[in-house]
Specification:
about 325 residues, alpha/beta, Arc Repressor Mutant, subunit A, D-Maltodextrin-Binding Protein, domain 2, 3 domains, 5-stranded mixed beta sheet, about 45% helix, disordered N terminus
Length: about 325
């Protein structure tokens, strides 16, 4: 199988790749067989086989290993499919923007945020953006960083306010906003609500509401239990929803760990009590995250400027 000249590989690759081949790769990954992928795309199996061979010839590498009657991605196929998924996400985002332009609207902005940013920075930036773009449609998803980044990769979100996947996260451009301390909260009638000090062992007598495994906050809470030589309590309630967490805590003797900024906002309104226990570690700084390989819409650029306290570019008419 021939290879592409590395000195001029990208232009040649762009000339030889076709969107139908991208769709075929993604369909094979989803269906698990070439026959199923061909049926999904309305192709005959010989046509799909030819298209796959042409793609492998364009890339200079085989992409699958045969396993029984199915196909399994090899290392090269895994990398190619990852890039193709990102490409599909970009095309979906482009299609939405073009549809907005065809309809003559001011556009749409999809933002994801961790709950720590909601009470202050996120709210202020969104209100300022709405003043600048009164007709802009805005969708806000609040979840954990890991789930939001997955939606950013897939093109569902254009901007995320959260934490990068790690120090070597090369897919996203990160700009720090603030650190995040954590607080343990309880309902106003909780047995520990008026205690002057609370030891970690005292908290073990009560049920816990925690974020799901995989989130940065949950990892920090797990470390807190390990530092005290204690296992996680049995019968946990796990949720990434701050509304669900608050409702559970306010109506029971459960305790929960949430960002300090959110805890203070609810405590000031008499909804919960912040227990006098200090977590040993804070979460790493959070900030804005956008895809490096995808251009920002004008609305997203304005939102980022407002989020970071900068002067946004003027809004143009749709």
């Amino acid at each position: 199988m021939g290879s592409i000249d590395r000195r001029d590989s990208t232009p040649q690759l762009l000339n030889r790749l076709r969107m139908r081949q991208v769709a075929l790769m993604l369909a094979i990954e989803e269906q698990g067989t070439l026959r199923g992928a061909a049926a999904r795309l309305g192709l005959s199996q010989p046509a799909a086989t030819k298209m796959l061979h042409e793609l492998e010839g364009a890339l200079g590498l085989p992409l699958f290993e045969r396993v029984g009657r199915g196909l399994q991605l090899n290392a090269a196929g895994e990398r190619v499919t990852g890039y193709f998924r990102h490409l599909r996400g970009g095309m979906e985002a482009l299609n939405r923007e073009l549809q907005e332009l065809r309809e003559g609207s001011a556009g749409r902005l999809a933002v994801g945020s961790i709950m720590a940013a909601s009470p202050g920075r996120l709210t202020q930036a969104l209100l300022a953006l709405k003043r600048q773009w009164p007709l802009l449609s805005i969708e806000v998803a609040v979840d954990t960083s890991d789930r939001l980044l997955a939606q950013l990769q897939d093109g569902v979100l254009e901007v995320v306010v959260g934490r990068p996947a790690g120090p070597s996260d090369a897919d996203h451009r990160f700009c720090s906003l603030d650190d995040e301390a954590l607080s343990i909260i309880a309902g106003c009638s909780h047995p520990l609500a008026r205690a002057r000090s609370v030891g970690f062992a005292q908290l073990q007598a009560h049920g816990w509401v925690l974020q799901p495994p995989g989130s940065p906050m949950r990892a920090l809470i797990d470390q807190e239990f390990q530092a005290h030589g204690l296992p996680l309590p049995r019968g946990l309630i796990e949720t990434g929803s701050i509304l669900t967490t608050m409702n559970l805590v306010r109506n029971s003797d459960l305790v929960a760990v949430i960002p300090q900024a959110v805890a203070r906002d609810h405590a000031e309104h008499g909804m919960v009590r912040i227990l006098p226990y200090r977590m040993r570690r804070n979460l790493q700084s959070y900030g804005s995250l956008v895809r490096r390989d995808r251009p920002l819409s004008q609305a997203a650029a304005s939102f980022l400027a407002l989020l970071h306290g900068q002067e946004p570019p003027p809004a143009s008419a749709p």
